[in-house]
Amino acid sequence: MPSNAIAGWFQIGWSTDLQVGDVRQLRYFGEDLVAYRDTTGTVRLAEAYCRHLGANLAVGGCVVDDGIQCPFHGWVWRPDGTNASIPYEKRTSRVRLRVWPVVELFGVLFAWHDPAGRAPLFDLPTEWADIAPHLAGRTFHETGPATQSLFPGTTIHPEMVIENAVDPAHFRFVHHTPQAPTVLRQENTDHTWFAKVGFGRRWEDGVDRPDDQVGTLQLKFWGTAVGFNAQTDRERVMIILIATTPIDDTRSDVFGTYWPEMLPDDQATGRHQSYIDDAKLALPDDIAIWNHQKFLERPALTTSEAGGFRRIREWTQKYYPDAGAEPLAHLRGRKATVAG
């Protein structure tokens, strides 16, 4: 399962990366890309190489209205990939650039990529309450450089990240929690995967109390590569986005974005920044494992683990349009693959 065979929404940066008129060179999905913010303030994403003679639009190209102009011969390309103008010709060209849909949400830039060329299959959340109902009505600090982490070129299969949602046992050994959290609830729709886990003795009974969020972590993935979670303690909520974007078949950029809940005395105490600093400690622990981990299609899972991994891998199968046999379909009969 090569990484860039996955369909879905993928983070390509943050809103602050591109001001109006800015052009940026990117490489994702095994391709060189150009991202730019046009004069209307909208971010666009296209293949980097001009279809005329192959000049790189991201190197010396400039924004013209809602399009991008090639630095070599001045050809201008529209957001839909069509040719807008050729300065020295009366007619335009019929060739097109390949373009990717982009949305900008919560200060984050996401692009839709599908190896099969399909239009977006689902929408990303537009309200915090889409992640978890108890976030409704709360206000969160905006994202900025102090609330962002990037781990470029990580050797990781993107599916490893979403599998953390069904792997509470790793918390003790990777994040050094006193005990593994208790899985309280898991549910999924066609394109979202949700899990609620509880930390500490108050949740040891495994009973989900819907009106009680203290000491819980609620994770919700949209597709395989965009995972929000809401961490709730007695003081406030911290929202974290972990997003994994394939560069090529073996490497991905891993993004972390952190939104602490805004409380009245934050400006005076700076307490919210300590929440950010503490929250940012967890992802490097995961990266240290992922960067040296091999993705196994037939892992030796224990009886307690097999069900969760089987369900999540069957659920993610829809995002591999060119895949053959179902990953982990053999886990329906666990005898050959389950340890313990």
Annotate the secondary structure layout:
Elements: E1 8-14, E2 23-28, E3 31-37, E4 43-47, E5 62-64, E6 67-69, E7 76-77, E8 83-85, E9 99-100, E10 102-105, E11 108-113, E12 148-155, H1 159-163, H2 170-174, E13 182-188, E14 192-198, E15 216-222, E16 226-232, E17 237-246, E18 251-260, H3 266-269, H4 271-279, H5 282-290, H6 303-316
Antiparallel strand pairs: 1-11, 2-3, 3-4, 4-9, 5-6, 6-7, 7-8, 10-11, 12-18, 13-14, 14-15, 15-16, 16-17, 17-18
Short characterization:
The chain has 340 residues and is α+β, with helices and mostly antiparallel strands. The protein is built from six helices and 18 strands. It folds into three domains: 97 residues, Rieske Iron-sulfur Protein (3-layer Sandwich), CATH 2.102.10.10; 169 residues, Naphthalene 1,2-dioxygenase Alpha Subunit, Chain A, domain 1 (Alpha-Beta Complex), CATH 3.90.380.10; 34 residues, no CATH class.
What assembly state would you assign to the polypeptide chains in this entry? single chain
| Helix content estimate | 10-25%
Main pleated-sheet profile: 7 strands, antiparallel
Instruction: List the helices and strands in order.
Output: EEEEEEEEEEEEHHEEEEEEHHHH
Q: Give start-end ranges of low-pLDDT stretches.
A: 324-340
- What is the fourth-level CATH superfamily of the largest domain? Naphthalene 1,2-dioxygenase Alpha Subunit, Chain A, domain 1
Mean pLDDT rating: 91
The tally of structural domains comes to 3
- Would you state the CATH class of the largest domain? Alpha Beta
What Rg do the Cα atoms give?
22 Å
For the terminal residues, how far apart are their CA atoms? 27 Å
Summing up helix and strand content along with how strands pair, one would put the structural category as: alpha+beta
The global form is globular
**Percentage of residues in DSSP E strands:** 25-35%
CATH topology of the largest domain: Naphthalene 1,2-dioxygenase Alpha Subunit, Chain A, domain 1
CATH hierarchy: architecture of the largest domain: Alpha-Beta Complex
The total of helices stands at 6
Instruction: Report strand order across the widest sheet.
Output: 12-18-17-16-15-14-13
The total strand number stands at 18
